[in-house]
């Protein structure tokens, strides 16, 4: 049985594969709402990484949400002198910054 744990290398590979498939994150993509297409993309990604599609989706949400949370904290400021730093490579995730603002 495959391990559910993602190594930092798996995370980097996952980020790169998601970046190559805008249908997974770009709201204005014409196929964004087509779940069949997205499911097929997740199957491709899971095959490349060697993890299940559900594990890849869950890990992606964790990475994305952590990155967005860090960005939000940096915008608002926390009152401390220390800079907030994402656990993930900010440059690798910068493609998410180009997306529309969050819903209110």
TrEMBL record:
It is found in: Nucleus. CDD domains: SANT (cd00167). GO terms for cellular component: nucleus; transcription regulator complex. GO terms for biological process: regulation of transcription by RNA polymerase II. Residues 1-64 form the Myb-like domain. Residues 13-101 form the MADF domain. Its main location: nucleus. It comes from the Eukaryota. PROSITE patterns: MADF, MYB_LIKE. Pfam families: MADF_DNA_bdg (PF10545). This is MADF domain-containing protein. It comes from Macrosiphum euphorbiae (potato aphid). The lineage of its organism: Eukaryota, Metazoa, Ecdysozoa, Arthropoda, Hexapoda.
